[in-house]
Fold these 2 entries.
Entry 1:
Amino acid sequence: MQPFDVHILGCGSALPTRRHMPSCQVVNLRGKLLMLDCGEGAQLSWRHTGLNWQNITHILISHAHGDHVFGLPGLVSTMGLLGRTAPLYVHGPASLHAFIDCVLHDFCRDLSYELRFQPVDTTAHQLLFEDRSMEVWTLPLRHRVPCCGYLIKEKPGLPHIRREMIDFYEVPVWAINRIKAGDDWTAPDGTVVPHQRLTTPPDPVRSYAYCSDTMAFAELAPWIQGADLLYHEATYASSEGALAEKYGHSTALQAATIAHAAGVKRLLLGHFSSRYDDEDILLNEAKAAFPYTSLAREGLCIHL
């Protein structure tokens, strides 16, 4: 099965601590790298992944708060210093345009590559972009400023060849790709061997939902239905529910309720308030409503 990995580079909230960095993740889908938010310290955390940051094709920013974008100027500059030539696409709310222009004008005037900023409609659930292996969809979120999560969906792969049947019918190598694409095989004596007899079904498709700063709301569940992994912010415990509502965040129990309603396979909590020295209070609260819950941490890599 092709890789679909989620690397956690930062999972704290606005105030960096000795335990957590601000929000940043990298998704490796079949060797293509997507960065989700780019908080301060993203480059330092990246060093522990072993990934080549020149392979980042898109950076997906959820909203224009510093703990989600302050790592971007340094990363953009470093890519230029290392001689990047491929275009880099940065997606995010339109309010980030001025910030991007400032970075390019004041700090990165002579980049060796083109940075293309593409504004996101934070009010619509729609296809943002796609290629041969994936689709990326927007997830409108509810925060104090325009905010958007992202759903990364793998596209179906090709069926697998049944080697024993290929050998039995003496199918030549040149015909294998056609069979994987759906063609039957016609033997030299005119016998037609159905495509289904020569193949097994492709691997099931996988999906990852990234829901950063947001209040919990029921309308989110249908958009992420059945996701293999949901990252949902859990800034506070239920005892701080008034603060969650005031600042446009969620409690761990609210995140678990969304995960249950959406029928996701796994829930990953993150964006922890610095008030918690031990996030087990959040984990236990969420697991009471959704048992398949774990805590994000820097350096964690989840294989879907």
Entry 2:
Amino acid sequence: MYRALVLRKDEAFKVSLEALQDTDLPEGDVEVCVEYSTLNYKDALAVTNMSPVVRTWPMVGGIDGSGVVLNSTHPDWKAGDRFIHNGWGYGETRWGLMAERSRVKGQGLVHVPSNLTTLQAMAIGTAGYTAMLCILALERTGLTPQAGEVLVTGASGGVGSVAIALLSKLGYSVTASTGKLSESDYLKALGAKEVIDRVAFSEPGKPFQKERWAGVVDSVGSHTLANALAQCVYGGKVAACGLAQGMDLPTTVMPFILRGVSLLGIDSVMAPLSLRKEAWSRLAKDLDLQKLSQMTQVIALDDVVTQAQALLSGQVKGRLVVKVS
């Protein structure tokens, strides 16, 4: 038997820790012991039923997981290998990894880099992996530290925290936008040169504003993203990966056709394996592990629902790692 965080929706929504049997394991060619998972924004929406994330019931929560392979019929994986799993619809259409054991598809797994533990891999998790995807996209379109300031919105969240740590180590001048000015010391310790109140971005603004940002990592969407676009310098580049404020984008074409601004969409869920491997290789090299530790809190499976509510109400900073087994 093994424990799992199970979401059910019969007459009413229910989430609870359950003891499951081996016969309950999902299909897959790699059986794993899950040591750690994470609590991401999407996970929080799912386990609180605040948004229709889950599309198949019942569901085991958890879009991320890391641990050790128990057995495998996939040619790239063998017993004892350490794995990372991110996305691929787990926790949405397929049972997720907030379970002590699971079966997964080997074609979607990434090996844990040799200098990382499975705990550190989940401290990075989808949030950190997404931040790295943003940076890779910005670099591919020509952004360099010499180009000017980079804005990180939603800065005290998981994506924002890792993005700040990565960008600062790579030599960028980073400005952090947050609704928690009380966390300014935390954000500056991660590498932000300046911390500004998100109020400056979260309300409707002019479609064309004073130029400031050479690059932007945005996990917020809505008016925040629109204002960031309007403040980009000529040739500025914006990587958009989230919708914490909303999924709307109330902007105009002016930043694109008058300043040549690029808006880069970032998807972490279905990103190809080659891109995942590149992102994790760069994370292992470019992320300061001491800063990663500063932004990480480890919680138990029993605490997931309570912490999910705190995350959605803006009471959590950095990364929440779930100790599974």
